[in-house]
Specification:
By secondary structure, the protein is an alpha/beta fold. The protein contains 15 helices and 18 strands. The protein folds into two domains: about 260 residues, Aldehyde Dehydrogenase, Chain A, domain 1; about 180 residues, Aldehyde Dehydrogenase, Chain A, domain 2, CATH 3.40.309. Helix 8 links the parallel strand 8 and strand 9. Belongs to the aldehyde dehydrogenase family.
């Protein structure tokens, strides 16, 4: 894929960029290593000052950045603006909490290990490579970069090839805020260039958000180099609706949960598993609200759903729907590629999904929802857990015992009860099964790329 900004609303190429050659990649890795050596000796207070300044710069650029996000990947402008502000919030969260999260932890009874004092400390590990996707071009990166830099590490970013201007903005942000030169650097390289960077001995670990094949490839390389990885590889999140739920609220939240960011979110609800007692009511409300969404120019404030980010992604979505319909799925609403410029796909709801259809197991990365009718909670759980993914989940019930049962038994990195799945700086984020390994955000996220060092004193 060319490194270029291609506007998904028009299909037109806005700007193209030459990949960094080997010499430039070497220069940037060396710069990152030098940035790490400078940053590791600074105090938490100094890093926090710089991080807060970076957040201020981000907020000062909110309108221009929101427009850039929308042009590069098609996110409606309201959501793009919210992404910028959420990123700044996450940066301040780590500025405020990093020192507490990484404080030394003394052993309460050092005599048990024959010491006068003992415990653990967290130390930075060095340069960390981040391989990031296009769907949240700022938030995905900054939820890694903020904790990594506050821990004293340096970051190298290989961003998705269709958001190069977002990547280049981030290349200068931290230096502008006062961080040492090289503490964060962007690499404009194709996917084929990642292996060389990851095998460089100066690069100590990697994090990737993206597809399962990309994650397996990165993990394989890192494993051969004995380097730590954090992987977030997508999901096909269940949205379970039981008879005691508030159906009006659940159906409204379901529309946002599926169609946020044009349906292109790893933790978007994708499979709606509805008890038969409330199935008809839920599906009719859901259908009507999905059909009422405003589809159009993502730069317009009134737009709810814009184009899919890439032409290939739109075509893949259409093929998944066509496969399901050809095998007997019921098209409740949508299901067409509109006759207009850009990479649009109608917000779609499908019912009567069966195991022989691609959508039963595959992630639909766009505004397509699959609805399942179930007879009881056991069947709901079987379908919810019946994929290789396990990122997040949402359960709608007002029965306390049923709530606890789902929390205990859902195979997912998170369970949201009577609410939409989301990521928050304050809560760990990550999945199980093929959705990945490791955690981002909260205390767990900053500790992933630290050396947990045992200290013993005689």
């Amino acid at each position: 894929m060319a490194i270029a900004t291609v506007n998904p609303y028009t299909g037109e190429t806005e700007r193209t960029f030459e990949p960094h050659d080997d010499a430039e990649v070497e220069r940037r890795i060396a710069s990152a290593q030098a940035g790490f050596e400078a940053l590791r000796s600074t105090t938490f207070a100094q890093r926090a000052q710089w991080m807060r300044r970076a957040a201020e710069l981000l907020e000062g650029d909110v309108d221009a950045l929101a427009r850039l996000i929308t042009i590069e990947m098609g996110r409606p402008i309201k959501g793009a603006r919210a992404e910028v502000l959420k990123s700044a919030k996450g940066m301040r969260y780590y500025a405020d909490n990093a020192e507490t999260f990484l404080a030394p932890e003394p052993l309460s009874d050092p005599s048990a290990v024959g010491a006068s004092a003992a415990g653990t400390r967290y130390a930075p590990i060095g340069v960390v490579l981040a391989v990031m996707p296009w769907n949240y071009p700022l938030w995905q990166v900054l939820r890694f970069a903020a904790p990594a830099l506050m821990a004293g590490n340096a970051g190298l970013l290989k961003h998705a090839s269709n958001v190069p201007q977002s990547a280049l903005y981030l290349d200068t942000l931290f230096e502008r805020a006062g961080f040492p030169v090289g503490a964060f650097r962007t690499l404009l390289i194709p996917a084929s260039g990642v292996e060389r960077v990851l095998r460089d001995p100066r690069v100590k670990a990697a994090t990737l958000t993206g597809s399962e094949p990309a994650g397996r490839s990165l993990a394989s390389i890192a494993g051969s180099e004995v380097k730590h990885v954090v992987l977030e590889l997508g999901g096909s999140d269940p949205f379970v609706v039981m008879p005691s739920a508030d159906i009006e609220k659940a159906s409204s939240v379901a529309v946002t949960a599926r169609n946020q960011n044009n349906g292109q979110s790893c933790i978007a609800a994708k499979r709606f598993i509805v008890h038969t007692d409330v199935y008809e009511e839920f599906v009719e409300k859901f259908r009507a609200k999905v059909a009422a969404l405003t589809v159009g120019d993502p730069l317009e404030e009134s737009t709810d759903v814009g184009p899919v980010a890439t032409e290939s992604g739109r075509d893949e979505l259409a093929e998944q729907v066509e496969d399901a319909v050809s095998k007997g799925a019921t098209l409740v609403t949508g299901g067409r590629i509109p006759d207009r410029a850009g990479w649009f796909y109608e917000p779609t709801v499908l019912a009567d999904i069966t195991p022989d259809m691609r959508l039963y197991l595959e992630e639909a990365f766009g505004p397509v929802a699959s609805v399942y009718r179930v007879a009881d909670r056991e069947e709901a759980l079987r379908i919810a857990n019946g994929t290789t993914f396990g990122l997040s989940s949402s359960v709608w019930t007002n029965d306390p015992e049923e709530e606890e049962w789902f929390i205990q038994n859902l195979d997912a990195g998170a369970v949201f009860v009577n609410g939409m799945t989301a990521s928050y700086p304050e809560l760990p984020f990550g999945g199980v099964k093929d959705s990945g390994v490791g955690r981002e955000l909260a205390a767990a996220g900053i500790r992933e790329f630290c050396n947990l060092k045992t200290v013993w004193k005689g």
